[in-house]
Amino acid sequence: MASLKNRLVTGVLLFMFVLIAKARAEEAFPQVSVGPQYTTTHVYVASPDLDRFIASFIATFGGTKSKQGALQVTPTPSETIWQAALTPVGLISVFAFKTPIPYPFGAERTGYLVTNLDEAVTSAKAAGADVLVSSFQDPLGRDAIVQWPGGVNMQLYWHTKPPSNAPLTTVPENRVYVSALRADIFIRDFISFSHGTIVSDDGIAPGIEIGKAGTTYRRIRVDSGFGKMVVLVTDGQLPWPYGRELTGYEVRDLTTTLSKATGSGATIEVPPFSSGDRRSAMIRFPGGYIAEVHSTGAANVHSAPQDR
């Protein structure tokens, strides 16, 4: 009975937050997203690890890489080697700084391409975000960094010359860890800004998904024009490497992907496990970047014992 009651309460709260967020979005917030193929995960590595990381990432997921360039990508003096990797399962921007990294760069998790930077920053502020770095010029356009309730940092960016990336084969998940105190506020504010939709809100998701078999936690999945997001609501008492990963990548064949990863220098930090219709694992690439990787579908349901 207690479990049923909790689910009913969660469902009612979810419905209320969706209504509030949609009403706020329709009244005050413009649609500024461009598409998930332009959402980048920001990866910071040491200069000696850059080539090995890029090579391993592309060997694992496929795709292509951009040319390397020595750039100033911050509003104050700095220099980094920058390179992008464009794969069918997601885009990454990789930074190997040759100088100390100015604050607060390095703490932002993603870059979201927007149609108009000034409009996007104004909208984010109105939705409840703080502006950590006001808009500035970079070699390709303009950027700003915002922070959402719960301490979630994101870059918003706009390019002088519009990019033309191909659609993704699968859309990656931005994996956001927040506390129970800030989860609903973060969801409300981000959905208002992004015009997103709550796909699911499970108050008793299997704890094995965050390395805590035999327990439960709250998991919220969101879709928007920026792509997918999964919000993991925890007490912060997480085993390694949970909470260190930024992005979850959906692949067709998890076993094959893991074989490609280890064959190119990556290590498996969490061996494959099943939960619901997913089979997941955690990979650490050369240079330290950690990624969740998963495959979905009915074939995964009975591939390992389920856990609550």
Describe this structure in words.
The chain is α+β, with helices and mostly antiparallel strands and 308 residues long. It has two domains: 9-23 and 171-300, Roll (2,3-Dihydroxybiphenyl 1,2-Dioxygenase, domain 1); 36-159, 2,3-Dihydroxybiphenyl 1,2-Dioxygenase, domain 1. Helices cover 23% and strands 37% of the residues. The protein is built from five helices and 17 strands. Strands 1, 2, 3, 4, 5, 6, 7, 8 and 9 form a nine-stranded mixed sheet that branches. Helix 1 runs parallel beside helix 4 (183-194) and helix 3 (117-127) packs antiparallel against helix 4 (183-194). The longest helix has 27 residues, at 2-28. Residues 301-308 have low confidence and may be disordered.
Main features:
308 residues; 2,3-Dihydroxybiphenyl 1,2-Dioxygenase, domain 1; 2 domains; nine-stranded mixed beta sheet; eight-stranded mixed beta sheet; 5 helices; 37% strand; disordered C terminus
Shape: globular
Radius of gyration of CA atoms, rounded to a whole number? 19 Å
Q: H/E series, N to C?
A: HEHEEEEEHEEEEHEEEEHEEE
Average of pLDDT: 91
CATH topology of the largest domain: 2,3-Dihydroxybiphenyl 1,2-Dioxygenase, domain 1
Tell me what portion of residues adopts beta-strand conformation: 35-45%
CATH class of the largest domain: Alpha Beta
Spans where pLDDT lies below 50 across 5 or more residues = 301-308
CATH 4th-level superfamily of the largest domain: 2,3-Dihydroxybiphenyl 1,2-Dioxygenase, domain 1
